[in-house]
Design brief:
The structure is a single chain. By secondary structure, the chain is mainly alpha-helical. It has 4 helices and no strands. The longest helix is centred in the C-terminal third of the chain and has 29 residues. The termini are far apart.
Length: 146
């Protein structure tokens, strides 16, 4: 491989790397990081009072994480992600999720790493990609109304 060609797994950037979606994604990811690693008093009443409510929250957090990351990679509403980009987005989101769980387990005494949380995060990642795929035609109609 010559010095000028990129490996197959490096996506071609077809837009500016930093755009309005990137800024939104970075802010959202920072929020997830803080909420995941901060000590949160859970003695008060939560509006989600059912078994597995925390897993639903994990799923929703990573749904948003993946959706915003994919939009940041797309650079606009109107460009669809190719399969390779979708896989890279999913891998980034799942690796980030795994790292957060490991940080909770090894570097905090008030949080614990749970496989169930990682599974819920992964389900959110998949839902985020599916939602983007389902909404792509709608985004394209916004650009080209008939």
């Amino acid at each position: 491989m010559s010095m000028l060609t990129k490996p197959w797994w490096v996506p071609k950037i077809r837009h500016r790397l930093f755009n309005r979606f990137t800024a939104t994604f970075l802010l959202y990811a920072s929020g997830i990081t803080v909420l995941s690693l901060a000590r949160i008093d859970s003695s008060g009443q939560s509006f989600l009072r059912f078994e597995g409510a925390d897993k639903l929250v994990h799923c929703l957090f990573y749904f948003g994480f993946t959706f915003l990351l994919a939009l940041a990679c797309k650079g606009s509403f109107t460009r669809a992600l190719v399969r390779k980009e979708q896989i890279i987005v999913a891998l980034i989101a799942m690796i980030y999720s795994g790292l957060i769980e490991l940080l909770q387990g090894f570097f905090t005494v008030y949080r614990s790493a749970e496989l169930g949380d990682f599974v819920a995060n992964s389900v959110g990642v998949i839902f985020g990609l599916v939602a983007l795929k389902v909404l792509d035609p709608f985004f394209n109609r916004m650009k080209n109304p008939k």
